[in-house]
Amino acid sequence: MASSKLTSHPFSLAGQVALVTGGATGLGLGMARCFVASGAQVVLVGRREAELTRAVADLGPAAHYVCHDVTNLAAADTLVAEAARVAGGPVDILVNNAGIHLKKSAVDTTPDEFLAVISTHVLGAHALTRAVLPGMIERQRGNILFTASMASLIGIPKVVAYSAAKSAYVGMVRCLATEVSSHNVRVNAIAPGWIESEMLNKALAGDPARKDKIIGRTPMARFGDPEDIGWAAVYLCSPAGKFITGVVLPVDGGASIGF
Fold it and tell me: Is residue 258 in some structural domain?
């Protein structure tokens, strides 16, 4: 078997443009920081301009932002065009990361609340994926990454809408990968464990028993850092991951296999 040609910088994202939804804080910002460190131009997307401005200032000249609500499905094409304009090139990497959290029992979760979570995670991700795919297919290159969750893999109480949305990502990844991988467009997901973030802090607020339970079932006995997700994202979107598509990669300190 002939050996494949090796690149001298297999983890480099130089010359690529990454669009990260929910990119101003938490996991999105962690991924953006690692993308910038790996040479990419990054476009952060979110609803709150003040947070976006702070994040871009922190990341430096390779970072840009577009203020946008991913539930505005009709404007997905406009967002992708604007991202290409501010970054100086078409979107090579889409990270579907924007989301909202709802901590309620299934009985107390209303249809409107359930739909709001689904709309942000699932419909927003589909609209943006649909917007970037024609260009990626035409250029015969691209990466689409979904931020899944432990809730995609294991049962977690009081997050029925969130679990449904994140589980939908797993099906979307597998379906999309079978559709577009022949065009050299790869589709993958990361399933973060419990990562230090504002969303985690809200989820665990006033619930020390739940925090202890999480740590107790995580073999590494700690929470992760946003950059742990960021470096996994770089790997999946870089030349180093060129034969990886359709996977859901847990980055969780062993939580999904722990006891």
Answer: no
